[in-house]
């Protein structure tokens, strides 16, 4: 038995100081997350991109009595009858690109490792998450599901889920009040005794803990996906209020690499191309920040013939950028010459009005980072500047002298707004969430204390292995002799927790 | 004051189990390290490569009374008078490529942070390490220096050091007995009270602890560079025998990235080219292992037009290889077709006799990994095979049917044997070692317990920053507002300890 | 004076045999060019992509009497009054990305090198070509303009041109009869004596030569852009019917490199991404053909992490593919395993029904080559296969066993249908056309015989130089001594005609 | 029968003007070619690199009567008896890496297409050329062989050839007089009636034409490899003195791509690494000239993490550099900042003393171009500068203020001096030469006039095809239908002569 594969996250470097002074970055993200249509923590974005804006918003779904074709009524969505067919097809298309969660469903279908699990689910609702949640049900769980974001629900998918008999409460364009009403419906229902929470942002956890403390006591585990939600959990833990174990899936190795480095390599090109039709060869680009996101951006842009400059505050990352063949500069040094500015820092006010005053005509400005504060967009709302919306998500901002800059997605995450997230990337996250639920639900008592944990390394490796057949990749197995030589178990985990992939 | 920037290494994942069953890999490395001319833990290798073998070994330096031009006699090297000029020039050339250690010397020259430090030094002795050790002296230290490897000493450099009045005891081709005699001279000398150890492999620490426990009590800190030495320290710590704090510089981020990923990108090409003059375009290569070393090999070879296959045991690394555009295969699948086999696993018996029996004619086999056991070279010493040495470090091994494979460096680290380590890479390591010595020597009492520590993140960042001017790289500084937003100190550290660069 | 900078194209290798047996490929292209909405010779494609299909086609523009806001009536377009504003803005946006033609306009504005040139213009009509044609007018020319393609006209742009007083005759969705009527209006008009032809496909030339031989006698030169048109001209020349000099701009070096190698590097990624949202990393792709188009596809896809296989008939190109790190295979060898098939051969039936029968589920099939016959799409129209249109330009074709392939753009040029051509690329072509017109119009008598010429190398170099400021690229000038050493004129041309860039 | 596959080179753009004013570049190359140990036209260079300089030069081979072990005496080499074994082994090693020429030998062994050909051979003499010449003999030819360069002969190889009974006249370090004596021995010998010439530089052709006009009348064809030799032939042709057909193999597509673009990608890295041990990551490099050699250098250096700047005089190449992601600059702009300067222009005085006065300390300067005049090395021989030879081919040149630059190979071709040419590259050239000999020797009378021809495209393709099995590359064959569609012969040639690969 592996007693020590799991690691409380607090040991991994969230030091006291960071807690004592909770970074403003996180506070802001939390406060603003439902005000922006591109929620900063959203990782399922095709919804955002493909959304049409022509939906009638006259009658709230809450005011209509609905039933699906089989007479089922325990849900609240928009237009179940007219849209479920289209939504089901979207789900089927997504299934083809989500090998991890589909394989998991197939392998564990017999075992039903989530038998009798009653899960309150609060995540984005779209074709890809539907594949995951229908998977949870296939593995034995009951689920009640609300959206974690008032703008991101794919109505047709919600309709398909309602048609399939799943209690789902969500539609695109909920009010703040609607939001809490839907979530309440998932926690408190006749004959419903939740014992697990699958959360994205911490709202389900917070509402249940605050309003339904008795129900909260029945919870065996929480799985949280977002950075914001993880910090809320950690705060609870610090203050002794976390009375159940939780798993932070946000920081799983496999998920992080795909959400950031790999996903970004595709989406920076796609975002720029779809919004501006720019030709990449010979363009001068400055990438602000050289973490996983900045590294991915810089690599792809360079491969397509851009000349990439990097700005960094951290000398280690700056040295990496240098060795990788990028000039490390301050933004001021290059701002007059570059054709494209990409922010990827997680910091605020990286690109200021002063910078934008000095950009050359036609410079493209966009944000690939965590929050929407990297570019000081507010500073552009002054009377002497003219804004022209030339395409969806593309604004020309024109100075009095005729000079113009091109702002994408109003400074929000450009790959959320102007590109799509491949289902394959979501498959990684979804598999990670499902495994975390299984782990917490089946853990022997005492294995996890009331703390925030990372997914055990071995399960992280398992998520990766579920996605290898897509590439026809063949793993090598250790011989007994080799395993002994390395001091490893033949089935993993293969690396210490601190290993830098 | 930063109370928590340093992290005892035990928190970073060396779990109990790994200790309880000390991997054989480490034990073997330890036992064999002085039997092989390419010491498995050697990171200063230009010495190995440029060494001539024509030196007279008739009279041992121990039997000759030597004095330098100023009459100084407290040293034992080979031919001090005839070679010191050439050695000094080699040191001067190295200085030009070691910006980190040179800058450190210049900056701290006045402060003398190592004033009164008496350091027993046991490392490789070559032009680059000479730059470091002369730096330690410039910063105020006294040093007595023996080599950690019986084959790697650059005699001319040792002569230059002796000429400069440094008590150095080393020559290429020491016997085992010589080795311990030299080390003894560095620990136990009239009027010498050592208070620091700079070790590479753990022998100085072990000898002093075992033979001179009274002297050992005077030690304020140990800085250890090698994996083997770190594990010996850790073992001492486990068993309660480590009575001083130690810093493991082997796992510093900056050092590791340069020793592995960046250094390897150059040296895999260089090693293959110098030894075989092979043309890279279109060659099929299998790289066994996709850690930092394997990643570096695969990236460079692919960039030069090779078709790269990867073998892996770890699904996460296998998924990375797939996403990076390499087919992940088992060695058996491709062994008949590849032109080059590169091992980079740290494991043993990766390439077996059975594999070699099936390789195609002219296949090149080499090892870039940790130990010399990755290729089962012993299995090739059978009567039916003919060995032909066609160049230094290059053997043709010929099967009865005329088929031939090309084995480089007899399976030892090929980049140690057939390439050189750039001084720039050594500069990173040397700066890390010097800073670790300064940190331990100046730490306020109680800051470090008697345990094994990683270099504080902030110092790791400082090492990186020392090397940025080489690239004319300009760091960006956080504004007060940004620092507050991120919850960071403006001067770093900028990342949590678990951050994966 | 440069007597020999221009080269009749016949010297460059269109050998007798090739003419005697005119390849069917060209004949077909010629015959089908107006039947397909993605004209095989189209190089201005944003029109195709951004076109909406909801335009009313009830009343033909020919039946409506139109006048612009200033009372001008010598044109025939759709909805001049309602659309010209939007069209003008599209033109203005295009101007920003077309540095070559804009610089040319600015430099030659005073000289008016096309003063008194009366040009019959028959090309695609869209924002980018409008920038060129308005440039011709700025340089002194009068123009009458019809479209060379019944589907590609941007109506709003045509409206803007009509509003600007340019006699333009074109709309999207012309009938075959409309097409000839419009063209006729450009040749034969009261008080109009054309002396130049700017053609794309050869129809203006053909119509004038056939129907208006007297007018044709007044022509001083023809500039032809398309492969088809060039071959028609060459055929005329062979048969002694070409009574004016013509310049083939299709084969200009600068234009060719941009239309193919550079443009393709962006558009293969963009086409696949926009249509399928596929993630590139680790995908296995076979690129059929390794000419400039195939080379561009292979390079970009590999850089994004794909594993690229190449098929070739030509051993020289195959050897290049090998050296560039791609496996050279037959399609049969890999057809069961690849995720994406890209054709780029200019040949027919590269991907047959038999191949498609064996593809794996979800395989994407698309064409980047010259014609729409590379993929045998017709063979897929059999009763047992189900076609599902899942997005614009994306069909799922489903076999009875449930296996499905994804066909893009029905096998037509995928980058024309699913991507856009950057204005920068069009700027190269447009500058080349404008310079060819200026050259022919101003050539001293006798300089050009009645033959088909390539653009003089020096002008080709000039087109390139017009686009360098975009990249802030600074040319080096030869010293007198160096020019003499190389036997070159300091202002070029710098290379012999046969030079392979 | 293909009547028109061969193309007289004069049609390919060597215009009158270029001839009238023969560029000084060529004249110089011709005049200096035997004065420099790295002959500017040398393409077989491993000889140069591996040569030792310690050979006794006391007694000239001409003064010694030699016989091989079988009593054969018709040769003049150095030390036939002591060295032939080692030479034979070098030849055998080379055979393994020369698939083209070896396959050709195997395939045509029965046919003996060179039966009764008597070839005067004047090329470099080393292991790789020996593989070719022994091939010619295997195909039926008789050969007499002298070296085309007084420094490049591998004596051991010459010994092996003599031992094998081949009349070879060459040794390293011939005097000018020796050179002509040796060549004379190959032309004029008892019972020897030469009918073919294989030349490299034009000396055999010139000597025979001048001194033995009667013998010259018996020649059926000349195959010339070097740029200089080709221009001498062309000059003869212009002046009506060329009385036999000649094939220029220098400009064959396959050979050129390998001699330049592909070969350079490996050798620029290798040359820099072997001579300076520099680390590539982050180094700033300026590559002067962006032809095939510059392109190869820039690509490899960028891939290894260098930041590459390009200088160009030709706007088309400059635009290519921009699109490929390199800044195009003048040398003056960057000369103070770069770490490495690489010349690849074929021009002179690219790097002047003035540039070198401004380089930063430690800047590396080397030449990859055609001649040794690109760097103005002479300007560095002034009293205030100190030259230090730090390694073979590496000089430190030190300014009075201590600043130092590192000059490689004294400005001669660095990849000839500091790297090796892979046998694979030589195999391409050797196959091309052998096929050219076969073509001329077997051509039906009248097929070739007394002019200079390029190798027929079909044979160029055949050379490529001979090298595909090395990469396990599988060509696709045209179907009858496809060949008809393209207007091509199924067995090639596949491209028009002007095609740019």
From TrEMBL, chains A, B, C, D:
NAD(+) binds at residues 291-296, 312, 415. One of its GO terms (biological process) is one-carbon metabolic process. It is an enzyme of class 3 (hydrolase). One of its GO terms (molecular function) is adenosylhomocysteinase activity. Residues 260-421 form the S-adenosyl-L-homocysteine hydrolase NAD binding domain. It comes from the Eukaryota. Binds 1 NAD(+) per subunit. The keyword Methyltransferase does not apply. InterPro entries: Adenosylhomocyst_ase-like_sf, Adenosylhomocysteinase-like, Ado_hCys_hydrolase_NAD-bd, NAD(P)-bd_dom_sf, S-Ado-L-homoCys_hydrolase_CS. Pathway: Amino-acid biosynthesis; L-homocysteine biosynthesis; L-homocysteine from S-adenosyl-L-homocysteine: step 1/1. Pfam families: AdoHcyase, AdoHcyase_NAD. Keywords: Hydrolase, NAD, One-carbon metabolism. Its cofactor is NAD(+). The keyword Hydrolase applies. GO terms for cellular component: cytosol. Its EC number is 3.13.2.1. It catalyses: S-adenosyl-L-homocysteine + H2O = L-homocysteine + adenosine. Gene3D superfamilies: Adenosylhomocysteinase-like, NAD(P)-binding Rossmann-like Domain. PANTHER family: ADENOSYLHOMOCYSTEINASE. Belongs to the adenosylhomocysteinase family. This is Adenosylhomocysteinase. The gene is 101890828.
């Amino acid at each position: 038995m592996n007693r020590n594969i799991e690691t409380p996250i607090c040991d991994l470097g969230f030091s006291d100081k960071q807690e004592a002074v909770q970074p403003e970055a996180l506070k802001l993200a939390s406060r603003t997350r439902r005000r922006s249509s591109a929620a900063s923590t959203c990782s399922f974005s095709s919804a955002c991109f493909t959304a049409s804006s022509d939906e009638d918003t006259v009658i709230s779904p809450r005011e209509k009595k609905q039933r699906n074709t089989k007479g089922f009524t325990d849900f609240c969505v928009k237009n179940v009858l007219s849209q479920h067919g289209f939504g089901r097809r979207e789900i089927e298309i997504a299934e083809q690109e989500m090998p991890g969660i589909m394989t998991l469903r197939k392998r564990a279908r017999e075992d039903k490792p989530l038998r009798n699990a009653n899960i309150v689910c609060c995540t984005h609702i779209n074709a890809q998450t539907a594949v995951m949640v229908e998977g949870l049900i296939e593995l034995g769980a009951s689920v009640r599901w609300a959206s974690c974001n008032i703008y991101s629900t794919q109505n047709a998918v919600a309709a398909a889920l309602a048609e399939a008999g799943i209690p789902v409460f969500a539609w695109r364009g909920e009010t703040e009040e609607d939001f809490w009403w839907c979530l309440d419906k998932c926690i408190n229902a006749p004959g419903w005794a939740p014992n697990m929470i699958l959360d994205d942002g911490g709202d389900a956890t917070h509402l249940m803990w605050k309003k339904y403390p008795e129900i909260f006591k029945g919870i065996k585990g929480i799985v949280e996906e977002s950075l914001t939600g993880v910090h809320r959990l950690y705060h609870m833990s610090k203050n002794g209020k976390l009375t159940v174990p939780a798993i932070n899936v946000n920081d799983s190795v496999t998920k992080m690499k795909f959400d950031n480095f790999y996903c970004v390599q595709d989406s920076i090109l796609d975002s720029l191309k779809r919004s501006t039709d720019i030709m990449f060869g010979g363009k001068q680009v400055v990438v602000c920040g050289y973490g996983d996101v900045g590294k991915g951006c810089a690599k792809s842009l360079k491969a397509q013939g851009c000349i990439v400059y990097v700005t960094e505050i951290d000398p280690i990352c700056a040295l990496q950028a240098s060795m990788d063949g990028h000039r490390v500069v301050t933004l001021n040094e290059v701002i007059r010459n570059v054709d494209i500015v990409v922010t990827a820092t997680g910091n605020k006010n990286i690109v200021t009005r002063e910078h934008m005053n000095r950009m050359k005509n036609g410079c493209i400005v966009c944000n690939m980072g965590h929050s929407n504060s990297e570019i000081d967009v507010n500073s552009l709302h002054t009377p002497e500047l003219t804004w022209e919306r030339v395409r969806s998500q593309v604004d020309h901002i024109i100075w009095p002298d005729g000079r113009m800059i091109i702002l994408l997605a109003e400074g929000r995450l450009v790959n959320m707004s102007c590109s799509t997230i491949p289902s394959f990337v979501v498959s990684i996250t979804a598999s990670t969430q499902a495994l975390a639920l299984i782990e917490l639900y089946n853990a022997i008592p005492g294995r996890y204390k009331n703390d925030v944990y990372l997914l055990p390394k071995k399960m992280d490796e398992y998520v990766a292995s579920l996605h290898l057949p897509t590439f026809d990749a063949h793993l090598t197995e250790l011989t007994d002799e080799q395993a002994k030589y390395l001091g490893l178990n033949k089935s993993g985990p293969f690396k210490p927790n601190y290993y830098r992939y």
